[in-house]
């Protein structure tokens, strides 16, 4: 017969695992929701660069384009970090699931 403490511990562990699964799913959703606009913005910056070059105003817009590219790069880096956190959560969840 299972000891009451063990049953309570397993129930608590099950709640933690469920919470980790929800957190992992939320991180994936956030990554997806932010990554799509970043892709659109990156494409538009590239288009702006090409158009500026075509009409001869590239030098006037260069600083702005560089700033936008740098901001997009920083956002991309931050969003990619979410996937690192997601991986850590996945690994922790797997480890906990083995204990249940």
Span between termini: 16 Å
**Helical percentage:** over 70%
User: Radius of gyration, Cα only, in angstroms?
Assistant: 23 Å
Mean pLDDT across all amino acids: 92
Could you characterize what this model shows?
The protein has one domain. It has helices spanning 4-54, 58-99. The model has no long low-confidence stretch (mean pLDDT 92). The longest helix has 51 residues, at 4-54. With 100 residues, it is mainly α.
Topology:
Elements: H1 4-54, H2 58-99
Helix pairs in contact: 1-2
Name its key features.
single chain, 100 residues, mainly alpha, 2 helices
Structure summarized in a few sentences:
The protein is mainly alpha-helical and 100 residues long. It contains 2 helices and no strands. The chain has one domain (4-99).
